[in-house]
Amino acid sequence: MAQGIGWTQQSTAPRQLTGIFVNTFPWYELVIWIPLLGFLWIRASRTQRAREVCLIFSAVTMILSILLYLGNVQPGSSWLGSWFGWNLIHIDQFSAPLIPLTALIYFLTLLATVGHKTQLFPFAGALLGESLTLATLWTDTHWWMILLVSLSVIPMWLELKARGESTRVYGIHQAIFIVCLVLGEFLSVRLNAPAMNMSVVLLTIAVLVRSGAFPFHLWRIDMFQKASFGSSILTVSPMLGAYICMRMVLPSEPDWALHAISFLSLATSVYAAGMALVQSDGRRFFCYLFLSHSSLVLVGLELATPIGLTAALCMWLSVGLALTSYGITLRCIEARVGRIDLNRYYGLYNHMPTMAAFFLLTGLASVGFPCTIGFIAGELLIESAMNYSPWIGWIVVLATALNGIAVLRVYFRIFTGTKHATTIPMRSQIEERIAIVGLSILILAGGLYPQPEVESSYKAAMHLLEEYHREIPQTHGSGLHSDGQEQAH
Amino acid sequence: MSTMLTYLAAIVVGCPILTLVILGLSGLLHRPLPEAWVDRLTKFHVTVGLLATLGILGIMILTDHPMEVMDLGNFVEIGQKHFHFHLEFIFDRLSVPMVLMTFVLVGVIGSFANIYLQGDAGYYRFFVCFSMFLVGLLFAFLAGTIETLFLGWELVGLSSALLIAYFHERKAPVENGLRVWGIYRVADAAFLMAALMMHHMTDQGEFLRMLSQQPWPQGQTHMDAWTSLTVGILLLVAASGKSGLIPFSGWLPRAMEGLTPSSAVFYGALSIHLGAYLLLRLGPVFSESVLLRVLMFGLGASTAIFAAMTSRVQTDVKSALAYSSVCQVGIIVMEIALGLWYLALVHIIGHAFLRSLQLLRAPTLLRDYRTLENAIGGRLANGQPMWVSGLEKNRQVQWYRFALERGYMDSMIDHLMLKPFCRLFKTFERIEDYWLKALDGRSSRPPQDS
Q1: How many CB atoms lie under 10 A from the CB of residue A451?
Q2: What whole-number percentage of chain B has pLDDT above 90?
Q3: B176: which chain A residues are within 8 Å (Cβ-Cβ)?
């Protein structure tokens, strides 16, 4: 971020919070413990009171994580470190912005959970998920990360169980993910070549499954159809698959594995964009739209060039903000008209014009419309893809074009085409408005003044590349390129 | 004098942006301005913009200054990696006339729409899209870099789609709006690919540097023959989409589903010329390849002939005028291919004004006809061209049907692209459902709540 706003490792910026208390108190760990405490407080309750408690814990978590990020606070002492000798917290320029982003997404999604949704939404599970997700983002210790992401699978599984839905599709995919991750990590420390290759294959499969890349994406569709919309958004928004890819796979990945992930991610982005365009179910449409964009993030990561990584990190933030807002808006509409059938027109514009405007804004932001946060991210990605290979650039452009058509199609289906007759007031509630307006402000601000975000992402990208090259000096034929020029293929 | 030019340029670009921000934000915050304020704001920014452009033109003529560049610097830059998103506006012999034309036509239509839409529920929505359209056009016409031009194109595309779907409680306008958006996205994608290829090959994003720092219409590119050909073909696809050249001509009559004011100025007069403008601005890319110029001439000629035939048999006046516009744009493209760039520029401006007038008079066409017939004391001539009367009867019927069905172009796009695309992805969906069911082990239940 410009001039000290944001996280800089070993920064001496004047904005850095000083004082013994600030630097020695385990603030970062507290951000993980707060939602966990909230979870223990409310446990299985789904009452209005549970919502309020959940909101308070989530709000405190969000505020604290934003303050830590803006104040450049360095990880101080750790309770886990002093009690058990575990030094688990590792913050760098890559993970630093993801933490407030994730906390914000959780808080605003919970805030927009109002009305009859409070009876069905697992608040305790959401807090547990938040705690586990934040903890995952704050560590680069592989086995600890594996444990946390494995545990983060549980809240959704419990929710599906509680709703009386089949957990098989979700369970099978998550089991494959965990088994591949554990075996892959286990084999990665072996020194012989077959074990190393097998490790790369397993870790690659784990990333593809968690990211929902084609053909491992079915669990996401199943989840969106069976679980609550809010929980599904919270499960996919932090993009833990991409995070694992960055931390565990990318540093040691040989070129062939890079190309495999890149190819499948590209295929997924176009496939999901095409599928989004023909969907008749609102949730499935959102699932594919998210899938297409999260695959584009992976494409950027796998380009493994400074600009490609910068593009991926910018897109990560833009997808996190824009598509979460889009999902929240869609969820608000669903709460009023039930499951959205995209084969028909709803004509809701006259009942909720402001919601229509936000729906369009957030949707267009996700596809990189000018003056929104996704624009520069999209430009960077296409630019780096073109530098890498014109074909990749063209496919990314194709996926973006299809997504753009799909977004406007759904807008027209929901808000236009007919007159919606109802006697029930459909205007958005204050909590929903705060959530959507808050995210929209960020979307517009990031679009109108993108330099800080790009700068921060670029620094993070360079930091990652330097770190990888320092720690793993090409021993595995890594495809990461930190040289001044983008590698042309 | 240069400082004065810079201030005037800032007014030209800044005023419409300010209006869009005011209207957009007050709409988003659910506090729309009263109609009288919207009217005043619109008239004010158009008048100020027009006067500032006239000032720029005057100074440029008096000082024999062929070009003024307004450099806003880098919107985004990653210095060491040579990535920058540069914002630059060029006021030259090509863009200044286009901007003047835009302000005049948009001002006229703004005044017209203010009366036409007074008290209408969509009044505010119209003027938000109106402002967005104006900003988009100004960005596109004044763009000094590929990125700025693309930004303008996108804004024009979205505002156009929303204006076509203005009567959004009916299905037809909405479906037409989506159709036009789809074609615009294809054009945008082609343009983006062409732009990135140019950027990649010349390592420049600024038109001036790309065209050897020479003011329009001079300049030359330094791309090899094959790159020029690929870029040129992509630009032709982009221009075809935006300007309704074949095979995308079908979108213009669909765009007439919108309001008369918006269809008059936005599609019939302004946005239909965006493609031609692009070809003019990047003319040097085409001038280096004879094959490209032949392709461009062929595209223009076939569009002109097709549209001339089609416009004669349309049963509603707006569609007839839409195809007449396409015909003229076809001729303009032919002129560009022949290197007659100044003629093409004059043709664009003349055509835009004439077509706006015709479209604005369209609702009172029958009354105008009656007035004319009363004045001449007889029926207006309604003959057919010589070459048609020379054809056999069944050939006449065949050509008539071809023209009436608008060359079957929309159905061709449907059958060759849209339907196979939908069938393919619906098949994928069925396969996915099958797999989901197989994995799930039990039949899927009806979905629950939220």
Answers
A1: 16
A2: 19
A3: none
The CA radius of gyration of chain B, in Å to the nearest whole number, is: 24
Structure tokens at A246: 């960055």
User: What is the rounded CA–CA span in Å between residue B292 and residue B285?
Assistant: 9
Alpha carbon of B140 to those of A312, B133, B148, B328, B348: distances in Å? 28, 10, 7, 21, 15
* DSSP-assigned letters across all residues of B229-268: HHHHHHHHHHHHHHHT-TTSTTHHHHHTTS-HHHIIIIII
Number of helices (H), then strands (E), belonging to chain A: the values are 22, 0
Across chain B, mean pLDDT equals: 84
Q: Which pLDDT value is given to residue A75?
A: 66
Q: Which DSSP category does A71 fall into?
A: T
Using the predicted structure, report yes or no on whether residue B79 has a pLDDT greater than 50: yes
CA-to-CA dists, residue A478 to A256, A259, B313, angstroms? 10, 11, 65
pLDDT tens digits along B146-175:
888 888 888 988 998 888 888 888 888 899
Q: Which of A369, A274, A272 is nearest to B184 (CA)?
A: A369
Residues B208 and B143: beta-carbon distance below 8 Å: no
| Burial environment of residue A254 by CB neighbours within 10 A (0 to 12, 13 to 18, 19 or more) | middle
Strand partners for B73: B87
Most confidently predicted of A347-356, B252-261, B340-349:
B340-349
Q: Is the peptide bond before A155 cis (omega within 30 degrees of 0)?
A: no
Could you tell me which of B158, B199, B146 has the C-alpha nearest to residue A372? B158
- Residues 6 or more apart from A283 whose CB is under 8 A from it? A224, A225, A229, A232, A330, A334, A339, A340, B447
Q: Of A387, A408, A450, which has the smallest distance from its Cβ to B76's Cβ? A: A450
Residue A246 is given by DSSP the state I
Name the residue in chain B with its Cα closest to that of A388.
Answer: B200
Q: Do B200 and A310 touch (CB under 8 A)?
A: no
State the best of B21, B75, B81, B199 to mutate against chain A, taking most chain A CBs within 10 Å. B81
C-alpha dist (Å) from residue A52 to A45, A137, A235: 11, 26, 21
Total H helices, total E strands in chain B: 20, 2
Nearest one of A273, A444, A446, A299 to A383, comparing CA atoms: A299
The share of chain A scoring above pLDDT 90, in percent, equals: 24
CB atoms closer than 10 angstroms to residue B77: 17
Q: Taken in order A462, A464, A465, A470, is the CA torsion positive or negative?
A: positive
Residue A223 to residues A326, A330, A470, Cα–Cα distance (Å): 18, 16, 40
- A418 touches B at CB < 8 Å: yes
* B449 pLDDT more than 60: no
- Residue A59 to residue A175: CA distance in whole angstroms: 33
Strand ranges for A191-290 from DSSP E = none
**Residue A361 near residue A440 (C-beta atoms within 8 A):** yes
Would an 8 Å CB–CB cutoff place A459 in contact with chain B?
A: no
d(CA B186, CA B245): 13
Q: In chain A, what are the domain boundaries?
A: 1-139
User: Is residue A148's pLDDT more than 80?
Assistant: yes
Mean pLDDT across A232-248:
88
Rounded Cα gap, residues B357 and B325, in angstroms:
12
pLDDT at A22: 57
Indicate the pTM of the whole model: 0.88
Whose structure tokens read 């007074």?
B118
Of A116, A278, A369, the CB nearest to B154: A369
Here the ipTM equals 0.88
pLDDT surpasses 60 at A479: no
Which amino acid is located at A307 in the chain? I
Residues 6+ apart with CB under 8 A from B379: B373
